[in-house]
Amino acid sequence: MYITHNSDVESRADLLTDGGTPSYCPRSAALPLGDIRKALVEFVSTGKRPAGVDRKWFDRL
Question: For position 32, what pLDDT does the model report?
């Protein structure tokens, strides 16, 4: 699985989310709102994955 990657965020620990089954997401996956907006506009315009968003392999589920 690939997730977003923000090299400006220190990836100290993973965030735990619980919607019934615990899952983990690294802090470095957090993106600034402006970047999220740009990515959404690009996706809606092209129908493809936004080129301006870095991704990284993540296998800790």
Answer: 86
- The gap from C-alpha 33 to its chain's centroid, in whole angstroms, comes to 12
Residue 27 corresponds to which amino acid?
R
Residue closest to 11 by CA, chosen among 25, 22, 26, 24: 26
What amino acid occupies position 21? T
Give the chain's residues under pLDDT 70.
Answer: 10-19, 22-23, 60-61
CA–CA gap between residue 39 and residue 26 (Å, rounded):
19
pLDDT of residue 54: 85
Alpha carbons 60 and 36: distance in angstroms, whole number = 23
Q: Are 9 and 28 in contact (CB under 8 A)?
A: yes
Can you tell me the distance from the alpha carbon of 42 to that of 27, in angstroms, rounded to the nearest whole number?
Answer: 24
